[in-house]
Amino acid sequence: MVQIIENKELQEFNTFGIQALCSYFTELNSIEDFHDLIRNVIYQKSEKLIIGGGSNLLFTKNFNGIVIKNSLKGKQIVFEDDATVIVKIAAGENWHEFVMWAIEHNFCGIENLSLIPGCVGASPMQNIGAYGVEIKEVFTELEAYDLINGEKRIFTKEDCKFGYRESVFKKECKNKYLIASVSFSLQKNAPVNVSYGAITGELDSHGINNPTIKDVSEAVIRIRRSKLPDPAVAGNAGSFFKNPEVTTEKFTELKSHFSELVAYPLTNGNYKLAAGWLIEQCGLKGFEYNGAAVHSKQALVLVNINNCSGKDVYVLSGYVLQKVFDKFGVTLEREVNII
Ligand code: FAD
Ligand code: EPU
Predict the structure, then answer these.
(1) Which residue's CA lies nearest to atom 28 of ligand 1?
(2) Domains in the chain, CATH or no CATH each
């Protein structure tokens, strides 16, 4: 029988390290646990929040509902030929451990996504991405369960409507499904992707000319460790905002005033701006508010440096939004899921 705990503290379940209570808490170790749970009256009457590693969440208040920690485990190879392998990974598996497992087996495609915190089940939520790769490139399908009637549904890549830090699960399917497993198509002996400038520089500095996927993974890990704060030291949820997309006209106008503007052309003719650069130019790197701060090495990351509340982080994020808008006329969008 699945256990339901009342009034559970959530500080250890979110990487921001924010104190917040939930009315009810439960953990799923199997799909049978889930089928058990949906017959429970407390579950049926409560607002529901599924969590994995809590690394993309900000609790701004207590959660008056049931938090469901997904701990489903298991890895399965469902297809294999000379070139490709399709792996089906349970949602509660740790993302980085899965990446390490793939590298160990020489399965290529996700090495650039090394060291992203959290669980496999959350990876489709915002189509996680880093260093020139997004999961939509290797995603094949996922298995989900309707949170009300428990029915199983397969989501194909098209169903997921992946975009930059976006999917159907942040929009019309928000809070409607438990993602139980995700399947990925990985390649044997595929060329590595070193298109993201920082990787090439990092490999060069180690004298590596013909990198393996392990070399790429290690380079990514070194870069990430050099700029992103370790949640065990300063609570955070990675980038707090998305990099905004602007039209060519807006880009040209900004570039004429700010020649150093960091921007990347997109295939649709628009430009993506580096939000970290915009925030830094507002003089906000290291800016503090009530124990919350803009990270001093990466301005896109907000950190809990002194036992702040989720509201403090949220207020700080509003201040950052306003400052960036006042200086550049660009509206940033929060990436982190606000509860
Ligand atoms: P949680 O925070 O637990 O949940 C996130 C959202 O997904 C919530 O809305 C939750 O309700 C929902 N959810 C979680 N699991 C399920 C499930 N099984 N079924 C249905 N809904 C579910 N992200 C990137 O894309 N790229 C990066 O480079 C990156 N770097 C980061 C660096 C640091 C230091 C940190 C702290 C975070 C970083 N992130 C990055 C953000 C984060 O790691 C990812 O978004 C990750 O996928 C979140 O996983 P999680 O299990 O912690 O999700
Ligand atoms: N920059 C600054 N100042 C800063 C931060 C960045 O000038 O304080 C400039 C950098 O110099 C660089 C550019 O902005 O020229 C891009 O910086 P970086 O390579 O660090 O990447 P990012 O755009 O800030 C994005 C993702 C990260 C991902 C990295 C690597 C988003 C919202 N963030 O950050 O994802 O790891 O690229 O691919 O797209 C996350 O989503 O949580 C996350 C950490």
Answers:
(1) 130
(2) 5-70 (3.30.43.10), 75-188 (3.30.465.10), 235-338 (3.90.78.10)
DSSP assigned state of 209: S
What element of type H or E holds 279? helix 275-281
CA atoms of 113 and 135, how far apart (whole Å): 8
Distance CA(180)–CA(178), nearest Å, equals: 6
pTM > 0.90: yes or no: yes
pLDDT in tens, 175-211: 999 999 999 999 998 889 998 888 999 999 999 999 9
6 forms beta bridges with: 24
Q: Is the CB of 142 under 6 A from ligand 1?
A: no
Q: Give me ligand 2 centre to Cα 147, in Å.
A: 34
Q: CA of 27: how far to CAs of 5, 36, 66, 197, in Å?
A: 10, 12, 10, 41
Which residue among 285, 300, 328, 330 is best mutated to probe the pocket of ligand 2, counting the most ligand atoms within 8 A of its Cβ?
300
**Can you tell me the distance from the alpha carbon of 230 to that of 248, in angstroms, rounded to the nearest whole number?**
36
With 0-12 / 13-18 / 19 or more C-beta atoms within 10 angstroms meaning exposed / middle / buried, residue 222 is middle
DSSP state letters, 23-67: EEEEEESSHHHHHHHTT-HHHHHSEEEEESS-TTEE-SS-EEEEE
Task: Kindly state the average pLDDT of the residues 137-152.
Answer: 97
